[in-house]
Amino acid sequence: MTNRPLDILNEALNKPVIARLKGGREFRGELKGYDIHMNLVLDNAEELKDGVSVKKYSSLVVRGDNIVYVSP
């Protein structure tokens, strides 16, 4: 049986993920929560540019309509 996208996010809770946004921005952090719109809450997050951390956040909310992909 195939996993649905939200099932995969549920398995990734409390684990590190990378979220790529429209416009090329990327964020890495520990997935603490999500909703049906794929809005994400990341703790200990950092913004990445060319794979290098450029800014850190203690907690970050990423709007689901800006997400291109989430990689566990």
TrEMBL record:
Q: What is this protein called?
A: Putative snRNP Sm-like protein
Ribonucleoprotein in keyword set: yes
* Residues covered by the Sm domain: 4-72
Species name: Methanimicrococcus blatticola
Concerning HAMAP family, the annotation shows: Lsm_RuxX (MF_00257)
Q: InterPro entries, from UniProt?
A: Lsm6/sSmF, LSM_dom_sf, Sm, Sm_dom_euk/arc, snRNP_Sm-like_arc
Keywords in alphabetical order: Ribonucleoprotein
| Superkingdom in the source lineage | Archaea
Concerning Pfam families, the annotation shows:
LSM
Q: Which family does it belong to?
A: Belongs to the snRNP Sm proteins family.
Can you name one GO molecular function term for this protein? RNA binding
Which terms does the UniProt entry file under GO BP? mRNA splicing, via spliceosome
- Extract one GO cellular component term from the record: ribonucleoprotein complex
